[in-house]
Amino acid sequence: MGTLTFLFTDIEGSTALLRRLGDDDYAQVLASHHALVRSALAAHDGREIDTQGDAFFAVFSSPRACVAAVLAMQEALAAHRWPGGERVRVRMGIHCGEAARTAAGLVGLEVHRAALVESARLVTLAGAGGAGKTRLGLQVAAELLDGSGDGVWLVELAAVTDEDAVPAAISQALRLAAQPGRPVLEALLDALALQDVLIVLDNCEHLIGGCAKTAEAIVRGCPRVHLLATSREPLGIGGEVIYRVPSLSLPGPGEADPPAPGSCDAVTLFADRARANGVALAVDEQAGPLVVSVCRRLDGMPLAIELAAARLRSMSLAELGGRLDQRFRLLTGGSRTALERQQTLRATVAWSYSLLTGAEQLLLARLSVFAEGFDLTAAEAVCGFGGLDVLDVAGLLGSRWIRAWSWPSPPRRPCSIGCWRLSGCSALSGWPGPAARRPPRSPRRTARISWRSPRRRRLT
Description:
The chain has helices at 14-43, 63-79, 109-119, 133-143, 166-173, 184-192, 208-221, 265-276, 288-297, 302-310, 317-322, 327-330, 345-354, 358-367, 376-383, 390-397, 400-404, 418-430, 454-457; strands at residues 2-11, 47-52, 55-60, 90-102, 105-107, 122-126, 152-156, 198-202, 226-231, 240-244, 406-409, 413-416. The chain is an alpha/beta fold. The protein has 4 domains: 2-106, Alpha-Beta Plaits (2-Layer Sandwich), CATH 3.30.70.1230; 120-244, P-loop containing nucleotide triphosphate hydrolases (Rossmann fold); 265-347; 356-457. The strands form 3 sheets. A 5-stranded antiparallel sheet has the order 2-3-1-4-5. Strands 7-8-9-6-10 form a 5-stranded parallel sheet, with helices on both faces. The protein has a two-stranded antiparallel sheet with strand order 11-12. 36% of the residues are buried.
């Protein structure tokens, strides 16, 4: 095993370029492109591992050599005279990691991971409500609006209620004419067959089956189409690359000093949104610790932080911090143009909660009694009764939804995100029947449990 630097390249909009130039001129483009890339590889000790069509995979012994080769390639490509006066643009991705040299070539997890991300046809941004999935997806799409390919398209699925209507929603967003008497998905696949486009499917969670079926058909039938989905759970189909959108970064638990400007995403967002609401907030030695406390209690969740910052128009920072136990009542007043479920923290949590199965709702409600982390034994002891079998708890803990609402806390002890924990407490207090009763046996003392927390009583 050795640490290497990997380089992946391919020509942007190559299908459209082929259409414009025709076979003969495009063959000249490929020949010149290959010669220029290989010349830079040779000049900077790069090793060509694989070439497929217009794509290269090469490795270097150092990042410095790789970057120098990339600069040389881009300069040579920009200076070259291409047929028809075209401008050939080449994407280049760099990744460092370990790989082993074998008779079959380079192998290793890092090689696989780098190639997977570079060649991914379907990427899903998955995370809890309010994590910023849509904003991240739109930012990615905006950065790809460089004039290459056949465009970037946004499909907003929030208002769609029928899973079978997903192909029609995509067709409408792409402004495709309806073809009466023909299945919509079939017509969509034909229209996309030769297109080099990125389609952003936003808010897939309530249409997960329809989105999965449509995405799988597009990936299989349209080789140049790339899909970027945002959802509170992955689509669960072959070839999907899942990026779990984390909470914004927070200072470490032992860091007492105010974070340096730009070093903490959650604090930066809070300060920026405060200023956008007309509040001059300086994250200094006096206000810094309180700002960090507010962001930490809001779990670094972008939506909650933005709603909290807006409250500074009517209360002081100290007053805001003192009222966060009532965050569902406090954090309201989001953008009037946002979806209704994104205008208040309560609505966001309620929407996510409504998409859970009955068993998942019950498990989340019971897990809310853990004030800190818990292990499987404690979860089974507390949750495995009255409608939930002990053997079912482990499986439900692996649920994609439950995982989205928690983060790992060493050693392998999940800890519920605070907003979801408070929601579970609220649900537990109003759950009918035996759901809220104490289990018939006491759990091991491996977790701190707050069955009679006064905070729970104030949530309703």
